[in-house]
Design brief:
The protein has 384 residues and is α/β, with parallel strands linked by helices. It has two domains: 5-176 and 291-379, Zn peptidases (Aminopeptidase, 3-Layer(aba) Sandwich); 179-289, Alpha-Beta Plaits. The chain contains eleven helices and 17 strands. A hairpin with a 3-residue loop joins strand 1 and strand 2. Helix 1 (5-20) packs antiparallel against helix 3 (99-116) and helix 3 (99-116) crosses helix 11 (364-379). The radius of gyration is 23 Å and the shape is elongated. The chain starts with a helix and ends in a 5-residue tail after the last helix.
């Protein structure tokens, strides 16, 4: 599909403008206003306020079904270390996951489709806040996304380092793992470090628990199950010569099957409750996202549309899912749809996502706009 060069240049300039002005989840006030102004300028019915800073724009063009395309807008709490001219101007905040590119590509697709209108039906362009661990998708659903903007399906994409530019990958099932973040507080009895017999040591209990948790994927689950349990924070103690009163552990669980997810959560609770004598354990679940599980019918539609745009060897079907997580899963729980990846590796490999040197590859922009536009025209065909 031919996308005008001037539109691609404009989209790249938007992307770089967004990159320089990143905003964290639920703080995307300026980003939201900027996106809404662009969409209104394209002549779209534009609505703001879902999940606080979310934006939804509607393009109607004759009879037919309604579908949704989604992009995420938030940045990460990372200090950017790249030296690009459009690097972040906000200390400690950067677009390290490509949400600036996702937003710019969907905006460009909206502009293109508002002019060409080679489809019949309704398109909802969903710009979501707070994807990074804050559940913006779930909040948009709770705020009535699918009641206010009824649609038969919703689709989302992500740029994917490790996959070449111009390639697309999609599965008929899981694309991304579930996410469950936990906090475990182990409480004991503090005492002098030289007299441990006078206390109950939560530090030793924490060490034992961390090792025990690693036996869950290794010994408590089938080797065919997919699960990762990671303790990522250990906090406790104030003085070098004092055994502390408590230690706090935090970490995450990732799974590709919902039943395995529930089993792992139960096993962690079991291990925490079996603390050593004198130690009490408390488990609190923090962030949770379900498995990003594509609807099989909608995933095949993505594959078929991709094959209409790309050579067969650039369309990847039934790839290995990622153990990273994505809150688009919450939209897929409420509405049929599919989530897919587009390649990010151009003339040089992309930096990893969530890396302080990462920058969205602008070589992707034309491909991303073409993918969205092709999906609109293939999924909402004009009656002949």
């Amino acid at each position: 599909m031919a996308i005008p060069d001037l539109l691609i240049e404009e989209a790249i300039s938007w992307r770089r403008e967004l990159h320089a002005q990143p905003e964290l989840g639920y703080q995307e006030v300026n980003t939201s206003q900027w996106v809404a102004e662009k969409l209104r300028g394209f002549g779209l019915q534009t609505h703001t306020g879902l999940a606080g800073t979310g934006v939804v724009a509607t393009l109607e063009n004759g009879p037919g079904p309604a579908i949704g395309f989604r992009a995420d807008m938030d940045a990460l709490p990372i200090t950017e270390l790249s030296s690009v001219p459009w690097r972040s101007t906000r200390p400690g905040v950067m677009h390290a996951c490509g949400h600036d590119g996702h937003t710019a590509m969907l905006l460009a697709a909206a502009k293109h489709l508002s002019v060409t209108r080679r489809f019949s039906g309704t398109l909802h362009f969903v710009f979501q806040p707070a994807e990074e661990n804050l559940g913006g998708a779930r909040k948009m659903v709770a705020d009535g996304l699918f009641e206010r903007f009824p649609m038969s399906a919703i689709y989302g994409l992500h740029n994917w380092p490790g996959l070449p530019v111009g390639h697309l990958a999609v599965n008929s099932g899981a694309m991304m793992a579930s996410l469950d973040a936990f906090e475990i507080t182990l409480s004991g009895r503090s005492c002098h470090a030289a007299m441990p017999e006078n206390g109950d040591d939560p530090v030793v209990a924490a060490a034992q628990l961390i090792l025990a948790l690693q036996t869950i994927p290794a010994r408590r689950l089938s080797p065919l199950a997919s699960a990762v349990v990671s303790v990522t924070q250990i906090n406790g103690g104030e003085a070098i010569n004092v055994i502390p009163e408590k230690v706090v552990l935090r970490g995450t669980v990732r799974c590709l099957q919902s039943d395995i997810r529930e089993k792992v959560r139960g096993l962690i609770a079991e291990f925490v409750s079996a603390s050593p004598p004198g130690i009490t354990g408390q488990l609190v679940w923090l962030t949770d996202y379900p498995v990003t599980h594509n609807n099989a019918v909608e995933a095949r539609k993505i594959r078929d549309c991709a094959l209409a745009l790309l050579p067969e060897n650039q369309v990847h079907w039934q790839v290995n899912p990622s153990m990273a997580s994505e809150d688009f899963a919450c939209m897929l729980e409420a509405c049929p749809g599919a989530y897919f990846w587009i390649g990010a590796d151009g003339s040089t490999p992309s930096r990893p996502l969530h890396n302080a040197h990462y920058d969205f590859n602008d070589e992707i922009v034309a491909h991303g706009v073409a993918v969205w536009s092709t999906l609109a025209e293939q999924l909402l065909p004009v009656a002949r």
